[in-house]
Specification:
By secondary structure, this protein is α+β, with helices and mostly antiparallel strands. The chain contains four helices and nine strands.
Length: 176
């Protein structure tokens, strides 16, 4: 298994170096990440349940896909690549916004990311890669709100930080 590197960044998301992914998470160093939120024609979000063997946040529900761009890889290119690798879906994700967060995710690991959020649209169900995802579910904002409110421990930290803002973005930019 080859080691993966993440792009370390400063507060303005300017690259300042690279580091092996697990080490960056052990040290809690700020790095670049992305999250794709895919919606269908009914404005439902495609949720992913992370595979049960993931190195952190295993089995938790989250947005459609998320990861880190490789060094020298454009973030949108990485988003397209991971959408295919994780969910078997092809789409053209559009940039929506970025946000920064820091969260302890268990196992002595810290996510400290500038997360680039992309929105995509499809009515196609995914073909899950079992190395990445255990399950999927389409859900609207009201259902997600109830679920996050009653069972917040079932969701990833970055999802809880961003999903309301993503739904507001879609409401402002999505035409029916």
């Amino acid at each position: 298994m080859s080691l993966e590197n993440v792009i370390l960044v400063d507060e303005q998301d300017q690259a300042v170096g690279t580091m092996e992914k697990m080490e960056a998470h052990r040290q809690g160093l700020l790095h670049r990440a992305f999250s794709v939120f895919m919606f269908d024609g009914e404005k439902r979000l495609l949720l992913q349940q992370r595979a049960l063997h993931k190195y952190h946040s295993a089995g938790l529900w989250t947005n459609t896909c998320c990861s880190h761009p490789r060094p020298d890889e454009a973030t949108v290119t990485a988003a397209i690549r991971r959408l295919e690798e994780e969910m078997g879906l092809q789409a053209a994700p559009a940039p929506a916004f970025t946000f920064r967060y820091r969260a302890t995710v268990g196992g002595g690991l810290i996510e400290h990311e500038i997360d680039h959020v992309f929105v995509a649209y499809s009515n196609q169900d995914p073909i899950l890669n079992p190395d990445e995802a255990a399950d999927f579910r389409w859900a609207g904002l009201e259902e997600i709100e109830r679920w996050v409110t009653t069972q917040p421990q079932r969701f990833t930290a970055w999802f809880k930080h961003s999903y309301r803002r993503v739904f507001a973005y879609v409401e402002d930019h999505y035409s029916t």
